[in-house]
## 1
Amino acid sequence: MNGLIFLIVVGTSIWVGFDSYSLLKQIPKDIRRTLSSGASSTFVWTLGCLLLWIIAFPWYLSARSKYKNYLKGNISQTVTQNLRPGVYPPNVSVKYCWNCGAQYLGEPIFCQNCGTKLKG
């Protein structure tokens, strides 16, 4: 039984290493930190999974979905609020409030910054 658990931990950690390398090489470093709450390199993800698998593996799976959404351009408002202004994926259209100039994504009805009505 212990051998099986060991193989699962090592196998998933190796997968995390290869998967995080393929995803993270496409994302700038400062954005990686924002999307994953601090862990921003393949080495950190792999080592974390090897040492603290029960914590790091679910954390990586959560961060992985954010990485994939960022690469597709489907990033949520909560994620973009944590990014520096002007740092968005290249395929995301950023719009501005006509009253205060705040940036926003999507089609909100009211500006989150000043409360001005944006849509008819």
## 2
Amino acid sequence: MTIQFHSIGTAYLKYKGKIPKHWSLADIEGTLIIDTAYRAGLQHIRAGQRIVVLCYLHRSPEFMPEFLTQALPHCQDRIGVFSLRSPIRPNAIGVSVLDVLNVEDSILHVKGMDLFDGTPILDIKPYKDSGNLTHDACWVHDTHNHSVGA
């Protein structure tokens, strides 16, 4: 089975230091520039929200079977790739949770960047924590019907 994804935009940041390995450790600001064809999809995204950004980890090496288990610097054992947040994966898809600082047209100013400059964006979803499931406008119209939202 062949699966194809297309970028909806690109992540940019001016920061030149070391990028944190996880969004929860990141305090870096950047921008997500979304292609104008997808601008309408940004409706109801507001400053103060958190969003989940799915991206293509374009700087990851090609995956090979020896990467099914990986060594970590602080662990003697090799760990299975599906138990890690390593960017070296069978499908180089990354997930970040970002704080929205501002929205201008098709540009999202965000904080919490753990992405490299130029990272292709595949999708954006609303962040849902277990304590706040209703803050987004009409995201799920029926909590018993799983046909909307993902």
## 3
Amino acid sequence: MTARGKRRGRRATASRARARGRSARRAVDAATLMEAAERARSRAHAPYSHFTVGAALLTRRGTIVTGCNVENASYGLTICAERVAVFNAVAAGERDFVAIAVAAGAAAAPCGACRQVLGEFAPRLDVYFRGAGGRVVKRRLDQLLPEAFALRTRRAT
């Protein structure tokens, strides 16, 4: 088979996998997502706490969108890496997320505010972060935020 035929075969296989509804989770593993989060962490702006965080958000299409924390002298204006990743993804037209990895150089899961924002889009999102001893931990978002706030709106009659 020629190189061109092999490329067509790979594309056809990937296309069939998408058609069967397989998620991007199989195409991008936790290690790859954590590596992307670590790279994002290197771009963090944390001159006050020196606690740098990076996040890598995986979309259903297989795109990885990153974010890093950005601190401000007015602490309330600081934004977490996870929310930056979500906002970057939404600004790029992505709204269907399957996983997020968070890298902080220490054991750190997403904060409550980030969990709530992520829950707006994907309550059953896979969340990867480093736990005690530096090992990667996987939890589903609905396990980390079991009683998420959900605004119920009534339809106009």
